[in-house]
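Hi V.,

You were right to ask for the full record rather than a summary. Here it is.
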Amino acid sequence: MKPSAENIASAAKAAGKKGPPPVHLWNPPFCGDLDMEIRRDGTWWYLGTPMGRMGLVKLFSSIIRKDGDQYFLVTPAEKVGIRVVDAPFLATDFRVEGSGRDQIITFTTHVDDEATAGPDHPIRVTRDPTTGEPSPYIHIRANLEALIDRKNFYRLIDLCVHENHEGQSWFGLWSSGLFFPIIPSSELP
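Predicted structure:
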């Protein structure tokens, strides 16, 4: 049987009643690729059309898995490939408790996942080698990250401080007792 979004959605609904299902424990056969893509802005596309039903997007987001550099939707019976342009999630908000080294930053994604930056949910920033444009990410779960959207990245910058990190001065931020470097202090104007 050819994989379809409807079959995957039905199996996902049956498999995960509370929280994301344990897709890391499932090893079903690979059934092919779906014409499904998650764009950099967090929109999900199926057969060339944006998916407008957020409930369906949330359902699919609960069964996504990354193996190596490839992304799959996984149920106990099927594993299908999908394309992800950048990251499968988009961090669209965060809240801060405390301040300075004691602050705790908790992110919320566009599909309502939450992750508190710290040892289990590190923040990392990559930079485009040509433009130097930063792309910040927060680890969400099981090898899956969220791109932190631009407005929230600018909000994070307001929380940043200069700290000595691994023998170099960095501009970065604290959360859950860890310092997350953003850019070397020497590269700031």
